[in-house]
Automatic annotation (TrEMBL):
Cofactor: Mg(2+)
Family label: Belongs to the shikimate kinase family.
Annotated ATP binding sites: 14-19, 122, 158
Protein EC: 2.7.1.71
Complexes and interactors: Monomer.
InterPro entries attached to this UniProt entry: P-loop_NTPase, Shikimate/glucono_kinase, Shikimate_kinase/TSH1, Shikimate_kinase_CS
Keyword Amino-acid biosynthesis: yes
Organism: Marinomonas algarum
Plastid as UniProt keyword: no
Binding site for substrate: 36, 60, 84, 141
A Gene Ontology term for the protein's cellular component: cytosol
GO terms, molecular function: ATP binding; magnesium ion binding; shikimate kinase activity
Residues that coordinate or bind Mg(2+): 18
Protein name, UniProt field: Shikimate kinase
């Protein structure tokens, strides 16, 4: 088992945060939490319902509350997959930079589009032109993901298991470098 602090995955919709988070948590013997699922459980409603009734702003408030409660609770030593918009609020970015190992799962817009086209549970993509939406979001958010992340892992040309292995080896290398420096 690798010893590590909380691992938090960030990146755009379709980067594979939920899928890879679950896989690496199993390999590391850590609990897995998907922040979107925490928000849904707390609300007793799904994300499309929250966006419809409370707007994106209402969802963002719930997202910050869920992130704060995850970090404050002694859930500790777990893997957390965030939603793609977690970096939009400064208060979230401040929380992310504190204490956790944050990994940016990078995916190109074409891969984001391909991977998100299979489902309709992402309200921001229920538009006539999801590619334009993903492109705009990427322009704004890519620098923010890089700002909060300790490590970046490219996911485009890899299957989920291979991305998970790459994330695990990147974490191992990072932690062994930290140990040798201290
Ligand atoms: N590396 C990958 N290659 C191909 N498909 C992937 C990859 N990672 C995730 N997927 C698929 O893409 C879709 C979105 O993945 P998901 O984990 O929900 O992304 P996120 O949580 O970042 O939005 C799922 O159908 C998942 O199986
Ligand atoms: O990018 C975003 O703003 C969002 C991403 C979604 O999560 P995934 O990135 O896991 O799809 C979910 O939090 C919500 O639909 C909003
Ligand atoms: Mg997800």
């Amino acid at each position: 088992m690798i010893k590590a602090p909380n691992i938090i995955l960030v990146g755009p919709m379709g980067a594979g945060k939920t899928t890879i988070g679950r896989l690496i948590s199993q390999s590391m013997g850590k609990e897995f939490y998907d922040l979107d699922k925490v928000i849904e459980d707390n609300a007793g409603a799904d994300i499309p319902w929250i966006f419809e009734r409370e707007g994106e702003d209402g969802f963002r408030k719930r997202e910050t509350q869920a992130l704060e409660s995850m970090i404050q609770s002694d859930a500790g030593d777990c893997v957390i997959a965030t939603g793609g918009g977690i970096v939009m609020r400064k208060e979230n970015r401040d929380i992310l930079r504190e204490g956790a190992l944050v990994i940016y799962l990078y995916a190109s817009v074409s891969q984001q589009l391909y991977r998100t086209s299979k489902s309709s549970h992402r309200p921001l993509l229920q538009t006539g032109d999801p590619k334009a939406t993903l492109t705009k979001l990427f322009e704004v958010r890519d620098p923010l993901y890089r700002d909060v992340a300790t490590l970046v892992v490219e996911t485009d040309a890899r299957h989920p298991r291979s991305v998970a292995n790459k994330v695990l080896s990147t974490i191992k290398r990072h932690l062994s470098m930290e140990t040798s420096l201290s």
